[in-house]
Amino acid sequence: MSEETRKVLLKALHELVSEGKKVSIKSVSDRAGLSHSVIYNRYPDLKCIIKDEQVKQAERLKRDENIAELERLKHKLSSVKRKTQKLEQEKSIEFPALLAHIQQVYSMYDQLAEEHVEALNRLRENKVTEK
Asked: pTM here?
């Protein structure tokens, strides 16, 4: 009976693991249809095996979370790269146009400055001739 109970408990453990369900002493004993105290009192080695499986499950869960986070970050990086390329393309188109506009504004400023100087000179000439 004792060896048969052990086999039933091990089978329950393997079923939970293969189904991807959370492993605990309670879940194994419930699956086997036994009290969890059976594991504590009669099969302390199974308790250790179950605890080891819990650690493995926690590690797998953490690994899966890390993989998911890595995939999310890869997607985000890809999106940022696409946006950067688009901005670079826009910059390469807009920058020369902006530079040409700035040059046009400076040219207009130079022309206005020349006209201003000419107007001042004419005013000075008019004052001199009036005296």
From this structure: 0.59
